[in-house]
Amino acid sequence: MPMHTNPGEERIEDAIRRLVVVALRDTGQSRRVADFLLAWHNAAENGGWDPTDLWNVDAQIAADMLRVLRGIASLPNGKYPSDLGFATEIDQLWHLWRAKRRRPRRRA
Predict the structure, then answer these.
(1) Which of 92, 70, 94, 95 is nearest to 9 (CA)?
(2) Are 15 and 67 in contact, with CB atoms under 8 Å apart?
(3) What is the helix (H) or strand (E) element at residue 76, kind and residue range?
(4) Which pairs count as long-range contacts for 61-66, CB under 8 Å and 24+ apart, including other chains?
């Protein structure tokens, strides 16, 4: 079911889609957007998100990040990206931005 932040506002899924497009690129803004989305997915595993990143992205990207924050704050029972249909995209972002950071597990 599509989620709206408020009546008359666009769906947060639209803002998430735009952010995913940015996050799949290889730029400083992309890293910041990926950090935002991955922290929402699982901050304990992926690291937190620094709100000062809003100062380091274009105004439209910052607006979409804020739109998503407002949207997820208003959703009942808490929702994650996968709950809104973005599991595949989060998996792509994890592999692009986090998989290389993982250390291989040591064998016993």
Answers:
(1) 70
(2) yes
(3) none
(4) 61/18, 61/19, 61/22, 61/29, 61/33, 64/15, 64/16, 64/18, 64/19, 65/15, 65/19, 65/33, 65/36
Q: pTM (2 decimals)?
A: 0.84
pLDDT in tens, the chain (108 residues): 455 445 556 789 999 999 999 999 999 999 999 999 999 999 999 999 999 999 999 999 999 999 999 999 998 888 999 999 999 999 999 999 998 765 444 444
